[in-house]
Amino acid sequence: MQFLYPSFLFALAALAIPIIIHLFYFRRFKKVYFTNVRFLREVKEETSARQKLRNLLVLLMRCLAVAFLVFAFAQPFIPQDVEVKQGENAVSVFIDNSFSMSALSEDAPLVEKAKQRAREIINAYAVEDRFQVLTNDFEGRHQRMVSKEEAIGLVDEIKVSPAVRSLSQILTRQSQALGSGKGTNKISYVISDFQKNTADLENFKDTLLDVNLVPLQAVQEKNVSIDSAWFEAPVQMLSQPNPLIVKIKNWSNEDAENVRLTVKYNGESKPVGELSIPANASVIDTVIVSIQSTGWHEAELAVTDYPVQFDDRYFFTYNVAEVINVLVINEQAPDAFLDAAFKGVSFFKVTNQLSRNLDYSKFPGYQLIICNGLENISTGLASELKKYVDNGGNVLLFPALNANTASYNSFLRSIPANELQNFEQQERSVSDINTQEFVFKDVFENKSANLKLPVTKGNYRLNNIASRGEERLLTYRDGNTFIGKFKSGQGIFYLCAAPLAEDYSNLARSGEIFIPMLYKMAISSARNRPIAYTIGQDEVIEADNVVRGGESVYKLKGKDEEFIPQQRIVASKVFLGVQNQILDAGFYNLFLTPDTTLSKFAFNYDRRESDLAYLSTGDLEAKAGPNVSVLTGAAAANFEEVVSDRSRGVILWKWCVIIALLALAAEVALLRFWKV
């Protein structure tokens, strides 16, 4: 047994008071009346013995009353497995309100059980203690310390949310809030189901914070979710089949049979088929999306699954451009073969400009820039092309016969790409096509057919520096590169070793190679625009080719809400910050004026909550450090007592008061009913 305030034990000196009273009060002489002298000795002896016994018992009761009253003020307790600390407590209680907490326990949803546990924890502490109530939402009002009554009110307001936080993030936020408080003792409670994919306790290194984990156990559920989806091609084309790749995952330990997959777009829902997914595995399926109109489109994938349904729908958007803009930069007159190649496709719009009359500000509006036969690449043009590629553009370079290799190589080093060496007037034939790369992938139905491959009568030999990451598209018989591909920033740079002029290359006449190559280069991209975003993870989104006018403010509007995101304009792009402003999965439109939609975005719930695998109490204890405790008594009928006993030990002062009162009552009874 220990005492919370041992200094009060000095008051035991008050025991001298009943002893003094006993010594002086009960020794007063009393008159005894008798009628017969022979009975005097017998009466005197009998009365003296009984009176002495009664007085000793009264003294004992008075000493017990004083002693236990002093003990009550000293607040004795029996310590448990943690050290009991004196002073005011600062307590942070985290209630997991993620989607997984909507699962059922034996009698109620886990989130309701977590709220009840939080109330019991708060009630176990004193009125003067301060509290923080925290959820996955990390709301501003949950970052301050409040009174006991306010904390109970905040707990009552908690609802299930799509937000997901790792355990280390939660403990760090609790540590920051408790550090700003004035409490002497800083204590953390985390009430959660402790999913394996978020319970990264090993990443929290603070050993000064007392952490208490309160695990709640749900009834094990099966779950199938749409994990992700993406288009096979970076650009979706009109009146053509656009393959959409869909990944579906089975999170349970049992096989999932007859899972129906449907896709909805253009106002119609179309069944894709039924899938069988092995236990704890994923399957990938392909959905063909037929596009009949240009502009922005909304679409939705769905699977049949019960009872966990928040991850059964996957929203995505895509944009079909009316035209693909191509800029051809020429040294002199436009190239007739380039013009003819693009005229065959109606949605390509080609602009020819001379190298000395360029408007660099319009570069971001083109999907492909072709540099054809430039004798010199000026530092200004090199800088703008580099910036254009880094921001996601595509550049195709055909060198001139009499090119200034110094200016070319200065530009190529900035990409970086392999550099031009000497020009060799020697006939060479292309022998190999890289049909695994996007530009030539799925172009030829019969890859083994005898294609008419390009032949050149002169070309630049390119050096080969491995660190520059060249990917060869067309290769000469001698192993040298004819056309190579280089990724730079978010864009792609293509380099041809020979001039496009007909005197030195017949590439432009090889229609089965040249036309699909230009077409695929124009729609290629090193950075695919996401067709969907994840709530809570993608806090900054980007809209392309949006130009801000005047003092207008961009807005995002969903099904039931509209808000102004943080915004930053960089060149022709706008970066939008949506921190904690999007809570519901669905579609959100970007606009300056309500009647004009500039862009569409799709947001989905975080799939981390789809994994219903939890850490057991044993797993948590194995991960726990010296300052982390797992409250296995969470199933106790009165959890408040469990917390109270851990924080303050087994409290005994109430029993001391009761014993003191009983001693006083016994004293009164002795004096009243024991007559001598």
Short description:
The chain has 676 residues and is of the alpha/beta class. The protein contains twelve helices and 34 strands. The protein folds into five domains: 2-79 and 653-673, no CATH class; 89-220 and 614-648, von Willebrand factor, type A domain (Rossmann fold); 236-320, Sandwich (Immunoglobulin-like), CATH 2.60.40.10; 324-523, Rossmann fold, CATH 3.40.50.880; 533-604.
Give an overview of the whole structure:
This protein is of the alpha/beta class. It has 5 domains: 2-79 and 653-673, no CATH class; 89-220 and 614-648, Rossmann fold; 236-320, Immunoglobulin-like, CATH 2.60.40; 324-523, 3-Layer(aba) Sandwich (Rossmann fold); 533-604. Helices cover 24% and strands 30% of the residues. A 9-stranded mixed β-sheet has the order 15-14-16-17-24-23-22-19-20, sandwiched between helices. The radius of gyration is 41 Å and the shape is elongated. The protein starts with a strand and ends with a helix.
